[in-house]
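FORM 7B: Structural annotation worksheet

SECTION A. Query
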Amino acid sequence: MSAGLRGICLALLAAAPLAQAQVCTLDMGPGWPAATGNYGQAAVSLLGGEHADGIAWLSLPKRGSESQLQLAPDEQGQWWVVRARAEERIHHISNDRNSFGVQLRLEQQPEIQRAPIPTELAQRILAHWQRVLAQVQMAERAPVMGEEDIFSLQLNGQRYSGREPGCSALVRLLDQRALLEELAGSKEKKHEKRYEAIGRALDKYDERVAEGKA
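SECTION B. Predicted structure
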């Protein structure tokens, strides 16, 4: 191989990881994975319901309790962060001869924590998710999940489900859920501190976007 050709090959190899990093293909799609719609809707109903505006992150693990985190306004226009977790697993497989098969245990009181959030901050979070989801590639429909954990996202009334994203920009946004969960579970005297932490995280994310790192 000539020195010139070798240089071209090395340049292409060096550029390949960058090109791959710029393409984020989600293993998610619209709606619910096959055979999980009833289960998913039941979990949503128990864990806070659906909202036409805002965003909700629903976790349907193959083991353990289901949970949902929501950022949505109430009828008066006040935005809230609501964290809900099932007291016992909703999707239950019974081996009892009198009730064999899958049961959806909805006669329970989930653990719910909530806190208000300023409208401007809530809208900023929503705008981040809208912008990033508009840039990624999704499947035409939600993938078949089998026995895997299901991650379901509802944004302004549109639902997407599948495997939790592993792409860089979405991972950083998903990391911000922890700050929202802390806010939902905090006392009123700590709310301002939580708002500031969320705002700083968004500022940092915006800086990375401006630098071409997100």
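SECTION C. Observations
The chain has six helices and nine strands. Helices lie at 3-21, 37-46, 119-133, 168-175, 177-184, 191-210.

SECTION D. Sign-off
Analyst initials: ____
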